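User: I'm putting together a small comparison set for a docking exercise, and I want a reference complex before I start. The sequence is below, and the ligand is coenzyme A. Could you produce the 3D structure with the ligand included, as structure tokens?
Assistant: Of course. I'll restate your input first, then give the structure tokens for the complex.
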Amino acid sequence: MGCASYFHFVIFSVVELPALKRLTLQPLTDALLPEALNLDQQCFGGLWTDEGYRREMASPNSELLIFLAESEAAEAPNVVALGCYWAILEEAHITIVAVDPTHRRGGLGQAMVWVLLNSAHRRGLERATLEVRVSNESAIALYSKFGFQVAGQRKRYYQDNGEDALILWRGGLHKPEYQHELANQWEQTRDRLITKNWHIDPTTFEPLILVLD
Ligand SMILES: CC(C)(COP(=O)(O)OP(=O)(O)OC[C@H]1O[C@@H](n2cnc3c(N)ncnc32)[C@H](O)[C@@H]1OP(=O)(O)O)[C@@H](O)C(=O)NCCC(=O)NCCS
């Protein structure tokens, strides 16, 4: 390599910034269902069927949301995360939080839990609960960041390997002071996404965030 080309290599290597990826939030739609099923398969080995997802999409008591990622390189946006809870009486029962394996550790899981809790708060729900495998340390760590605590254990809850489930619980979602907690958590979540080069789409996220002001 001559001096000039080496110089260009160094300069372009240094100044080249990673492309921004646009992140949008929306409910799952029919058109994106195959991608959601694919993500479900990768994350849970097929937790819900096509019919199961359609039932959730039609139910007013189910909040089923996705994050879509769009980069200049990609032809169409991809589903990179899924999240769902059921509103049962005054409780948000979180059924799914799943992030595309190629996008993990980039703040998407945290953002999805925040979105679900914010939605539950806006519905006036009082608490959130969920079951998680005792071995799922990453999910347990994620939920504990949002104040979830262990409320109990279900023995041999998972049929595939007979593993126990921890029941996690987070109260106080309906309290006025929870708004401030949500606002603080959003700042941390947003900053993390930005450092990971996500461009957060204001039109889909802002309606949520304005409620907190
Ligand atoms: C659990 C899951 C949703 C986390 O998504 P993610 O986008 O990688 O998580 P984030 O980057 O937002 O990380 C947020 C927090 O989660 C925890 N976490 C995530 N991955 C972790 C790992 N591999 N080890 C330990 N903690 C981890 C940490 O507390 C992290 O915060 P920190 O980085 O400040 O320590 C993802 O691993 C996943 O989809 N797993 C498979 C499906 C699943 O188990 N879902 C949960 C049960 S419903």
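The two ends are 57 Å apart (CA to CA). Residues 43, 96-99, 104-110, 132, 136-139, 141-142, 145 surround coenzyme A (CB under 6 Å).
User: Thanks, that's exactly what I needed.
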